Amino acid sequence: MNKILDLNSAKSTLSKQEKIGQLFMPAAFINDTEEEIQAIEKLITEHHVGGLCFFHSRASAATNYEGKKMVIYNEHSFTTLQKLIKRYQKASKHRLLMAIDAEWGLAMRIENTPQYPYAITLGAIDHDKDLVFQVGRNIAHDCKQAGIHYNLSPVSDINNNPDNPVIGYRSFGENKFNVALKSIQYIKGMQSEGIASSVKHFPGHGDTAVDSHLGLPQIDKSKEDLLDNELSPFIELIKENVDSIMVGHLSVPALSNGRNVSSSISKEMISGLLRKELGFKGVVISDALNMHAVSKNYPNKGELEWLAFDAGNDILCFAEHIPEGIKEITLKATETQIESAFERVWKLKEKTINADVSNPSETINPDFLNQKIAQKSITLFSGSKENISEFRETGFLSLSYSKGSENEFVRELKNLFKFKHLTVDQLDSSKVKNEKNILLSIFPPQVKPTDNFGFTNKEIELVNELINTKNVVLYLFGNPYALGVFDYEKAKACVLAYQDFKVFQQVAANHFAGSIIAEGKMPVTL
């Protein structure tokens, strides 16, 4: 594999255009065609890009905002990624910095790879913060086996808007102290394996109801309020000397002298607030420059790349107009701007060289750690264990909202209790007319809040009728915000399991049976 020069040698050896090329991180797609792969190799050899950010495919959720293209799944994506990384490294004169979004593991981008719980689930852990460290460590280990050096996570936004369409479950919650603590533990876990991190999305994407993939969200808060809340985790993480910070696409007039401009191209927010006021010395990376919050406003090729660099971004992620961007920066940037950004990026490369493994090992089986997380995160949101005990002892009908006729939760309980089981699609009023107690297990169809988490109005009405007329104990296996579409306050008890993984369902069954105490704490407010 190509080696990396030490910083002093690189500064004296690389040409100006090569140094500027090092600041670009175009997207690479695991399931590209040979023609598309060769086009990326051409970018590497001709324009000396510094790194690549990997996505599943050109039709994947990260780039297919309008959902018009079907994602084709490839069970061999992981080995394809390994081979591609080797091929791209071989094509590069200088070692490439390989990045990916692996917030809950490589599974965020690659099928058949380990998946860990969403950040909101980790946010529910009230004790044993070491579990979050272990998640970061395991994810970093898996990244190394693929050839990835740079995990663009964790999400350190405070999610304080239940209707947030893009953060939500990706955040550790709404409490600034909890978000900062869990972010630090996750990062330290990754650092223990030599993987770089990037906290995101500065200055805080939590209090929005607009998806910045589609439009530019605006946050109308005072600077004082932002410093006290949204910016607080970033301030704490800067004290920990984090590797890098990703700047989001957000309009925050209070931080841009009243201007309605995206934070990702705001000098006031990056060079001013982040660098000078908050004292951040590490790498600043832009959020994906193809996102419609900014890309649709700058049709002239190279203009957006220049504005992002001039504002203070060191790495231009998902830049789509690289030759034009290099040309604009070459013509307009000062030597100091170029040298400073190049130095920060090269130092990050030097730091991550130890993450390279010559003989990759297997990824880590996540089940053992996920089971421990399930036990520590399960949350008795309303009601009491006495309510559940009384309910359990007097008999019940099991009713599930799930894709299958049964699920692991119900299967586990059938080993312990005798009861009838129905799914919502089997339900009619005659089947529950004489039932007093209903054990309701709900698996939301989707994790995002759009269209009521995928529930139809008829399904919501049906569940609410049961909650209002029967004794209902409700177990939710998904985003806790999904409770908000139901009359959950009327239930005898509500328990949050957060994930639908098999081990989370098993833990939930043991909780209902009374053998596990719910230790979790709801990380958000409904």
Describe this structure in words.
This protein is α/β, with parallel strands linked by helices and 526 residues long. The protein has 21 helices and 15 strands. It has helices at 7-13, 16-21, 34-47, 77-91, 119-123, 130-146, 176-191, 223-228, 232-239, 267-277, 292-295, 303-311, 322-332, 335-352, 367-377, 385-393, 408-414, 429-432, 450-453, 457-469, 502-513; strands spanning 24-25, 27-29, 51-55, 97-100, 150-151, 196-202, 244-247, 283-286, 316-317, 379-382, 397-401, 420-423, 437-442, 471-476, 493-496. The strands form three sheets. The protein has a seven-stranded parallel beta sheet with strand order 2-3-4-5-6-7-8, with helices on both faces. A six-stranded mixed beta sheet has the order 10-15-14-13-11-12, with helices on both faces. α4 links the parallel β3 and β4 (97-100). α6 (130-146) packs across α7, α12 packs across α13 (322-332) and α17 (408-414) runs parallel beside α21. The longest helix has 18 residues, at 335-352. 52% of the residues are buried. The model has no long low-confidence stretch (mean pLDDT 94).
Primary descriptors:
single chain, 526 residues, alpha/beta, seven-stranded parallel beta sheet, 21 helices
Q: Helix- and strand-based class?
A: alpha/beta
- Terminal Cα span: 51 Å
Largest sheet entry? 7 strands, parallel
Order of strands, main sheet, comes to 2-3-4-5-6-7-8
Number of helices: 21
- The average pLDDT value, as a whole number, equals 94
Give the CA-based shape.
elongated
- Runs in which pLDDT lies below 50 for 5 or more consecutive residues are none
The proportion of residues forming helix, as a percent range, comes to 25-40%
Radius of gyration, Cα only, in angstroms? Answer: 24 Å
Strand content: 5-15%
Number of strands: 15
